[in-house]
Amino acid sequence: MNMKKRQNVMEIVKKGQTRLKKSKINTARLEAEMLASHILKCKRHHLYLNKDLAMDEEMLMTYNRFIEDRCSGKPIQYIIGYREFMGLKFHVDENVLIPRNDTEVLVEETIRLLPKDREILICDMGTGSGAIGISIVHYMKEARAVLVDRVKKTLDVAQINAIAHGVEDRVKLMESNLFSGLGKDHYGIFNAIVSNPPYIPTGEIDGLSIDVRNFEPRVALDGGLDGLNFYRKLSSIAHKFLRPDGFISLEVGYDQAQDVIDILKKEGKYSRLYSKHDLSGIERVVIAYLSKDERK
């Protein structure tokens, strides 16, 4: 017989909510419930439907540890180990940036623009968790993707997600700093190069919320002095890897869209440039097609 003392879940959640509020967690109730449902392996609404739901001492210890982690600023996605993105569940840990809802605009616009009548190949540059490339491949059965990142531990996370979503046979993981690891055999093969790069100006990182600046990988945030380093590097070489009808699809930070467009224009290899707004009305995505006869 299990003689372990069990405590009512809703009482535990209320205490957790109070502790999170004291640590100025704006969504204290939601997150207290999320942590409880994660431990109990149930949907959040089940916490209310089953009034007799309880935790044993071991579960309670785990819950309290999770609450302390969250109070310290650790993102809840790292605590529970996943983030939902594009209707899919992606494993995340401290080696990867947590996918944001705004990035779904990048994925949706890329899917809208890609050909639907033939096999396609995309490059997800700086793939992180793989959320962008894997989502595209998941929703476009004719698509394949090369997921590129310079950090091996990051690629390990992307591999976990590729397997979880059953697309491991349609993605190739490549350890590379930008295009340095992609040889001439990759010239002219991609229908799209898509990326959510680091775009936070170096001087602004210390002013970010504690959960971002202290826990998410700095390499995925720091875009250099003005936040635009990646865009300059990518624009100078990406054209070599695009098909004649290919395009670049880039996420950009607040008030960066025109600067990124200007960088691409200055390179002289791209045309049909435009930006796409996110749900908050911010220009979040920049698209640039390869100009005719410009692939060299």
How would you sum up this structure, described in words?
This protein has 296 residues and is of the alpha/beta class. It folds into two domains: 6-72, Helicase, Ruva Protein, domain 3; 96-290, Vaccinia Virus protein VP39 (Rossmann fold, 3-Layer(aba) Sandwich), CATH 3.40.50. 36% of the residues lie in helices and 22% in strands. The protein has eleven helices and eleven strands. The protein has helices at residues 9-22, 28-40, 46-49, 57-71, 76-80, 103-113, 131-139, 152-164, 210-213, 229-237, 257-267, and strands at residues 6-8, 54-56, 82-85, 88-91, 120-125, 143-149, 171-175, 190-195, 242-251, 270-277, 283-290. The protein has a seven-stranded mixed beta sheet, sandwiched between helices. It has a two-stranded antiparallel sheet with strand order 1-2. Helix 2 packs antiparallel against helix 4 (57-71). The N and C termini lie far apart (74 Å). The model has no long low-confidence stretch (mean pLDDT 94).
What's the arrangement of secondary structure elements?
Blueprint: E1 6-8, H1 9-22, H2 28-40, H3 46-49, E2 54-56, H4 57-71, H5 76-80, E3 82-85, E4 88-91, H6 103-113, E5 120-125, H7 131-139, E6 143-149, H8 152-164, E7 171-175, E8 190-195, H9 210-213, H10 229-237, E9 242-251, H11 257-267, E10 270-277, E11 283-290
Parallel strand pairs: 5-6, 5-8, 6-7, 8-9
Antiparallel strand pairs: 1-2, 3-4, 9-11, 10-11
Helix pairs in contact: 1-2, 1-4, 2-4, 6-7, 10-11
